[in-house]
Amino acid sequence: MTNPTRVAFLEDHLSIIDGYLFRLQNDPHIEVVASVMYGRDLEGMLREYSVDVLVLDVSVPTSFDNPNPYPILHEAPALLQEFPDTAILVISMHAERALIRALVEAGVSGYILKDDHEAIHELSSAIKTIAAGGIYFSHYAQQALSAPAGSNGPALTVRQREVLSLCAAYPDLTTAQIARKLGVANSTLRNLLSGAYLRLEVRSRPSAVSRARQLGLIAPDSPQRVG
User: Does residue 80 surpass a pLDDT of 50?
Assistant: First the structure.
């Protein structure tokens, strides 16, 4: 008998996790091993548990004290390099074409919209397909990926989107601190930001983050938590 596919979640709404568990509970070939609500806890979870497929949303908070979205465009390539046996499936309410493309370039193996009921109904099959080395994209995500490049306004490079993703997650960090997180020189980061400013037609980091969010080039702002 083959080992079950081990699944973990990064999702900050318990009701959504409960829904996923309901979909997966009757499949003997899938085992849910863990879940976390904040991006900062993700690496520790992956170190503690052997995970075949990580299911995540792109707008979860970075930490309890930092409600800004976890910089998944920056973190995903590093996570996939450190945990090469783990694949990523994104399930999100955000349908922006540029964001879906950016996540594919970052290395995710699938993308499902939360209101795509047919794809959610097939969640078990999607997870097993990805665990076996395949990909799974819902109908809209497939359409987004096949649409002409540049159809959503100005294009940013992968590195520029990564930088703005970090700036959105850590708005209070200095340019030097962001550069250290990226592992680049201050001058390199300034050049990346300047190039992004020119393409987005803005003059500052906050304006660039806001414009990139509007265009779907990075994850939107996290919704305000209630209670």
Answer: yes
Q: What is the dihedral of CA 94, 52, 64, 159, to 10 degrees?
A: -60
> Residue 106 is encoded by which pair of tokens?
């970052």
pLDDT reported for residue 151: 52
Q: Please say whether the beta carbons of 43 and 20 come within 8 A.
A: no
Please give the single-letter amino acid code of residue 98: A
Domain span at 17:
5-146
Q: Kindly give the pairing relationship between strand 87-92 and strand 30-36.
A: unpaired
Q: Quick count: other Cβ atoms within 10 Å of Cβ 113?
A: 21
pLDDT band at 129 (very low <50, low <70, confident <90, very high): very high
* Number of CB atoms found within 10 A of residue 209's CB: 24
Tokens 């306004």 belong to residue: 153
If asked whether residues 189 and 140 sit together in one domain, one would say no
Note whether 139 and 162 are same-domain residues: no
Let me know: does 113 contact 143? Beta carbons within 8 Å. no
Residue 206 is encoded by which pair of tokens?
């906050």
